[in-house]
Fold these 2 entries.
Entry 1:
Amino acid sequence: MLAFLLRRLGYLVFVIWGVGFAAFFISHVVPTDPAAAALGSNARPAQIQAYRHKYGLDRPVYQQYVRYMVDLFRGDLGNSLRTQRPILSDLRDFFPATFELTLGAMIFAVFLGVPIGVLAALYQDRPTDLVVRTLALVGGATPVYWLAILALELFHSRLGWLPGPGELSPYLIEPHRVTGMMVVDSAIAGNWPDFVSSLRHLILPAAVLGAFSTALLARMVRSAMLEVLSQDYVRTARAKGLAGRVVVLKHAMRNAALPVLTVMGSLLGSLLTGAVLTETIFSWPGIGSYATSSAINLDFPAVMGVTLVAGLAYSLINLLVDVLYGVFDPRITYA
Amino acid sequence: MLRLRFALFVAVALVGGLLSFGAAQSARQQTLVIGGDWTDLITLDPGVAYEFSPVPILDNTYQRLVQFPGTDLSHVVPDAATSWDIASTPDGGTTITFHLADATFSTGRPLTAQDVVWSFDRVIHINGPSAFLFTDVAGLKVGSTKALDDKTVQLTLPKGVNPQIVLAMLTFNIGGIMDATEVQKHIQGNDYGQHWLNDHSAGSGPYMLDRWDRGSQVVLVTNPKYPNPPSIKRVILRYMQESNAQRAALTSGEIDIAYNFTPDAFKQAEQNPDLKTYKTGTFVMQYLGMNSGPGAPFADNRVRDAVRYAIDQDGIISNLLGGLGRKMQTIIPYGLLGADTTVYYQHDIEKAKQLMAEAGKAGGMQVEFLIPTGACGGGVPCADLAATVQSDLAKIGITANIKQTTSAQLYTIYRQQAAQLVLAQWSPDYPDPNGNASPLADFNAKSLAWRNVWNDPHATQLVNEAATSTDPAQRKAIYAQLTKYVAQNGPFAILYQPVYPIVSTAKVDGFARSAQGDVDYTAITKQP
């Protein structure tokens, strides 16, 4: 197991190097000048030249790359051209909000997607199944930005059930920042009004972001369950006279969990990318919003920082999924 | 007995509930929440900031020597200085001597002439994006600002610098005065306190910075040392990039003011009795830049004239902008000295065709039409505006092939003088006519006239004469000549001067935004 982990972590270094390499060169073949972007439309040529020199943008690309990699190995992602701050500080500020939102979306997807998937499998080809399949189809096919605007209009503006954009009501004082996640921080501070407000603010963006994952998860759970339910051991369990609940929850679901787990791993990755749009519409101060404004302003170091962090997160999630395989299926061994 | 206790409990709970409800109501009334796209905020240091979003924040936290009275930007009035005298120096330069009012920083220290000197010299030392206003435009150096005593400060300007332009420039946040003693305590390395000033303020304005949560909000609270406490105690600028999100939050009352309504949404808001709409001024100019260099498609002024006749400005303003723009054809916008509102070109396709024929282009011509992504002035998508222009030009035989890029890419090409026809925006660096005249008409300023390869010595001469004249009437007369000359000969077809649409709930009173972006938060009140 340890050897497996070490080997996988070794691969991780190569993956991150590859991601960094691609991000660096893609951002450097864009036919534009980040200095011009940072200084705005009124900037004079002399100002632009001085800026290019200050940030080393006037050097050959390979020199810039070597310098970037050397800094990277020292744990320095460089400074953002736009905010002028170390990118690590920026990411530290913005990542927790994204993590909270993604986690919220995943919880939403698991707690809704798995039960309806199971229900659909148990009631195959009956009205329940039809409803779930239709919902899954619609949920999977709806673009997240459209869903976000629609949800905001309906649940916030028209019905008034849930609060609007942002993490917390503007009329409340923010809790002391510990983790950077508003719900967690307000719980730590024991601030009840903040906790309720931040939790309510999380519901709509998390549900919107999680909609696609819910749909996909429901379909995966349904098909995995259908397959497992037709297996001999399930029939045997039923024949033994075990209660239906025990058969489904203990025997069938555990075995159906494996393919579902694989999907969840890749879903987390798609949640991270979906967060870009959701965060922009819901004014969520996460790395999605940060990535958007960095990209618009051609802040290459920041874009590369976000890409690396997203790549790292994606790889770690996949590693975690591989490790969890063994937990769910003892037949799997790590060599 | 039990019943009595229960009644007492209910009474206490009711009173408690009412009191807390009252307190919450009052907190709401004293808090102003403004939703907008503040993603251009990168610093809250008045000596460095050179973006749009920090303007109202810094104007409410730092006093400057002089300011514009509300939205009237035609003359300056006292701020930290009660009065000032302008005198000539033997070498042909000028001095401006400011007499300071009694003011106290939020830190409790009095504002002195030494603070002004330190704040101004600091701008030059840091040499940030806005420092050229001090060094290039005003000709200031370290040592040009002197404290004559605690309450008198003198600025020495070199020959050729117009003190009127400098006064207008000092209204901008670069002229913000900070508590030198306080900021010096927080210097890291040689950053002159820049890092500290992103999360703290050290000014004498009515508000002070409480916190800046990047990407989330900027919170201002009242400065306890400010003499007249404003009605609004807390101002929150909430990041909301999406106009739909702003509309939703405004309708539900979660925010009080929204900065980024689309023209369509603004039109709907005008019909809604629960909302107030404001068409606030801007100095922005939406224009077509035509490359006029030798061999370029617009080298012949008759072709440029043809474009100016072909564009249907009224159609653009009423149909596309929904009225969120003013018709303008000259280079000095409404609101500045010398603004020229004359209509030199009436929409006339036949006349335009005739000019094309005279220029030998009766058979038409093809040009690359460079346009930015995103929204143009007045909130209209640039792609829509470009399509309208494209169809106007097609009527006179000009095939404009649209090439859409990000603004950053567009300006990279434009700066290399490599754009044939470009859809762009301009706003002056400082609220003085020279802020437009010099970049737009003087080739040597290496700005817009240069980018469009339009080198005209007569225009350059007029720009320089106006820039050095200290007599407002004389300047106005020179600008009248210049604006007419550039309108008829320059490399631009100006489309419109957008107004900035802002919407608030009906409960907000006293909101006004100047063309520079200033908002006096102390003038705002909120009904319960």
Note: Chain A touches chain B through 51 residues (CB under 8 Å).
Entry 2:
Amino acid sequence: MAGAVPIVPGMPQSRKLPTLEQVRGPGAPRRFGLALAETVVGRGNQSNVIIDSALLSRRHVVFRRSGPELSLADLDSANGVYVNGVKAHSALLHEGDTIQIGDVVFVLHEAPA
Amino acid sequence: MTEPVFVRFWGTRGSIPTPGHKTRRFGGNTSCVEIRTGDIELVCDGGTGLRELGLDLLQRGRPKLEAHLFFSHMHWDHIQGFPFFVPAYGKDSELTVYEVSPGDDRVQKLLHGQMRSEYFPVEFGDLGAKIAARHLEQGVARIGDITVRCFEQCHPGRSFAYAFEVHGKKIVYATDSELDLLLGNREESLADLELERRLPDALLAFVDGADLLIADGQYTDDEYPKKVGWGHARANTVADLAEQAGVKQCAVFHHDPMHSDELVDEKIQRAVARLERRGAKTSLFGAREGLELKF
């Protein structure tokens, strides 16, 4: 899980960090802080967030931070990336967006202003 | 190998830009949609979203930009971004601006007109790019492997929809059309909101089987009776069009400037529920800035 910051209940958290709340799929429930400029999620060990699901590609999706903007891009995954139910090649993200990759579902929480 | 087609929303708002926290998710920029396949860059409308597209195109680092611009019509919210489209100032850019028929010069005239010195400090003639005018012949143009067709819509001052077909994919851009004035059962559909709305055969044929229909669905059913004649459709009527034309995905577009993100969500949820009640196969969503689809 190189680069991603797992957030454990009770652990002090940066209030400035956007987080992915994993609400479904292997390992759920848990949260990942998006601390890097780019965070790759997939099942392979070259990903920053590794999730053990056969429905995920090795490098499935990348989350990018650019100033206040947060976006994602599908890394040519086999099963695609769905943002609020719409199959997206890339998307700007906002508070409460639901992101599904294979059997894994995240809810995005933006960093508080 | 067949090149994929990418569609990205740069501006989805209707009428006037609406920046601010209430419209963050769907976006406040006015109409602009990019369609890209291989090296071919197509732009539908030049609302304020065109400014962001221009900046992004420069960042992509292509040595020479060639883009083909199609305008649904020339109301402000569809042209205001053009003077701020940075590639239009670059000497290495080549832009082709399309008129819907031979002899028509409305697009060129109005792009020039909005850059007169009374309105803007740089005149159209001073732009660095090579800007060529081209027209559709009998409603059709070809750009590489892409076939473009246009279709006249129902809007004050006229507007046109465009269908782009390439390698078996079909994208239809159809904004600013008051579909509800075209219905075969218009009166009945206003009295009984659940009634299936009968769209004209010619429009259904134009949209038929689209992989993506991007269509103006500015109003809810409740709002529309006070907006008759303003040139925009009910989102639920767009849902019926998409279903009847066998559209795979439908992006409801041209969101009302009075609508917050929450109100757009409600409008979309109602249209989705309508399709679900009918067992339709069409997938419908609200177009939002920054969303890119791949076909």
Note: The mean pLDDT of chain B is 97.
